[in-house]
Amino acid sequence: MVLDFNINVRANSLSICSNIAFFPSQSTEQEVEVTLQSSLAQLAAEIAELETMSRELVQNQQRNEQQILEAKVESGVQQLEQIAHRVNILAAQLETEMRNFKEVAVEVNRCYHICQQLESSHQNQPKPHRWTPLNIWDIHFSSIPAIIKRGNKFIFVEKVINLFK
Q: Are 152 and 140 in contact (CB under 8 A)?
């Protein structure tokens, strides 16, 4: 014997009432079996479709994350290029100022040597053997930072400045 059932739910302001009724079905067991099999087949198809949609969703999320990361990399590389350009401009300005300093220092040093020689001659002090006037400047370090780009890589390098060219 095959039974059908109905569930009725009514909501009123105070409570929810439900009625469950079982009654003999008009369908045969064979008809119910066919209906059950077709329902299961339909559920299996829907599950397969949901799994496909889930895989597509995961792939789309991965693509979106990849695109976001690529955009961040592109933006970051542009920022690095701008910063490298500014650093190199400052390095060029620093090199110019170092050369200006050297030119002024050479002239001031020449005058300083003459002053030392004049003071020494006015004081009638005997000159020590191989006496050399003191320098007003000296070079211990003459390099500046620079940034070069090779392929996808930014490299901090040291640019040596030859102030005696």
A: no
Token duo for residue 75: 């933006």
**Full-prediction pTM beyond 0.85?**
no
DSSP 8-class letter at 129: T
- Give the residue among 118, 162, 114, 119 at the shortest CA–CA distance from 141: 162
> pLDDT, tens digit, for every residue of 93-110?
999 999 999 999 999 999
When the pLDDT of each residue in the chain is averaged and rounded to a whole number, the result is 83
Using the CB atoms, write b or e for 65-81: b if 16+ within 10 Å.
eeeeeeeeeeeeeeeee
Task: Look up residue 68 and give its two tokens.
Answer: 């976001």
Percent of the chain with pLDDT strictly greater than 90: 53
Residue type, 21: A
- Please identify which residue in the block is written with the tokens 């020590």: 128
Q: How many residues does the chain have?
A: 165
